[in-house]
Design a protein that fits this description.
The structure holds two protein chains of two kinds. Chain A is of the alpha/beta class. Chain A has one domain: P-loop containing nucleotide triphosphate hydrolases (Rossmann fold, 3-Layer(aba) Sandwich). Chain A is built from eight helices and twelve strands. In chain A, helix 5 runs parallel beside helix 6. The radius of gyration of chain A is 18 Å and the shape is globular. Chain B has an 18-stranded mixed beta sheet that branches. The chains are: A alpha/beta, B alpha/beta. Chains A and B meet through helix 2, strand 7 and helix 3 of A and helix 4 and helix 5 of B.
Amino acid sequence: MSTLEIKNLHVSVDTPEGTKEILKGVDLTIKSGETHAIMGPNGSGKSTLAYSVAGHPKYQITEGEVLLDGEDVLDMSVDERAKAGLFLAMQYPVEVPGVSVSNFLRTAKTALDGEAPKLRHWVKDMKASMEQLRMDPAFAERNVNEGFSGGEKKRHEILQMELLQPKIAILDETDSGLDVDALRIVSEGVNRVKETTGLGVMMITHYTRILRYIKPDFVHVFVDGRIAEEGGPELAEQLEAEGYDRFLASA
Amino acid sequence: MTVTDHTRATSDAAHSHGLAAPTPDASRADRPTSFDVDAFAMPTGREEDWRFSAVRDLAPVLADVEAGGTLDWSVPDLPEGVTLTDLDVASARERSVRAPGDRASAVAAAHSGGAKVLAIAPGTIVDEPITITVTGNGADARGHLLVEAGTNSEAAVVIERKGSATYSEFVSVDLGANAGLKLVLLQMWDADAVHAGEVVARLGRDSRLRGSVVTLGGKVVRLNTSVAFAGEGARVDLFGLYFADAGQHQEHQLFVDHAVPRCTSRVTYKGALAGATARTVWIGDVLIRKEAEGTDTYELNRNLVLSDGARADSVPNLEIETGEIEGAGHASATGRFDDEQMFYLRSRGISEDLARKLVVRGFFADLVQEIGVPEVEQGLMDAIELELEHVNEELSEDAHG
């Protein structure tokens, strides 16, 4: 049982026009097995939340805390956060030339566990996960994200999540730019990992479509760097019908 | 038809060179060659073949004077059919496959004090690689070396250069009919060495040259390789691996001259750069002459920039005078290992040092295996790891200092 606690998080970035505050006091608690949908208009700070928790150097935390099972996450380096059990599925996964998918995954798994995985199990797990994500076996020998289609990149993110087995995963617009078939495959993957590992999920999305495939326990509406409203799955339905106008007008 | 393109990665945006591309020579074949030093003007850095060079650091090897020093040659017991002998300057000129192509190598040949000839007698088959180590003791030295692989011979020669020196050399490589030669030149110099070299090879009918160049050490290394096909059915594979840290300038120029029909050439050079002021230059010229029907050629250069401020220049040139060829192509790309890639790998639990190793190992691994001399390959992966240790120390000091 794990808990990620975000308390009064304020985050700024440097821009050519000076320092700009993006997150203005975010409070959010995610426990194992829970799925939280973070919804909101573009530019509201959803991705900033994701990257700040993962530790991207671009974002400066000016106030607040992030705790994973009571441990101070903000004090950890990026790789230490991953070792503590955090995972970020990125909206725009990065190409890494010269490093094959299989080498990348094995190196990450070894780094996280502190020892190399048993080869036979590892090969079997990887093959099974790739099959379920409908990924061609040849994929394993391609360079990380190099020449991948949008859908392949997202499936590759979920493949990593399944094999690396984090405690809490942040999915940053994993649904954006996917056709319905790819969305279904990716969603099945997330649900499968939740079921088998009790993963806690923070699902950042602009659209409600993914919520048909991954059922949220909680929905948070993010506007202008804060959570403006919270509720159950019914809030997502309301947003699908009404859009974000109501929140934008008040903001 | 002349096809020219040029890719350049300048990681440091503030760093501008304003280099106008000079007009390329009418043909690469028109460049002069001569043993007469005065046939070559003192380079200013504006010439086509010197425009990316560290001309100021190379000044000592461009002066038409005696150097005075020598390098220490460590030669193993040579197998039967292989000899290493001395040759006077005048005879060495006669026996070289052609004259020097620039001032540095003309000076090297003129002031070598005599050449060394490594000869593999016709029909000799040597299984083990012949490894010669040449060590500088801080001296200023010139050298002229002839490698002669006789008809139907087969051998692998590894020449490792280390220590500290200001060294220039002219190396002539002559492959007789159906000879097979693997020639590996390792530049493992100390950090202050300056090295200018020209390797010129002539390939007889059906011969095969597998030439590998590895440049890890030295302050400035400028190593130019030219291959001319003299008989049909020959093949050359040229591999290069270089890794420049802060303060290093590594330049590799290549010229493959397809002058006869049905020959094959493959050129693959890969380089990594780390640290501000790390600098690499690759120029790959291929000429397919009118007579060279059935030519098959491909050249590739890849560079991996690991940190801000490093600069890689890459200039492939393909000159084709006949349409009756099998294939001709080139590719050049310079990629950056940047903060976003680092963040991506680290967010998967991979440490900063390991992330860099992962990328560099992956980048070089296939190339190392191509050298074809197992004794060199293992040592080389270790040497690259060592380079990376230095780089990791430097870059983490930068990041935290």
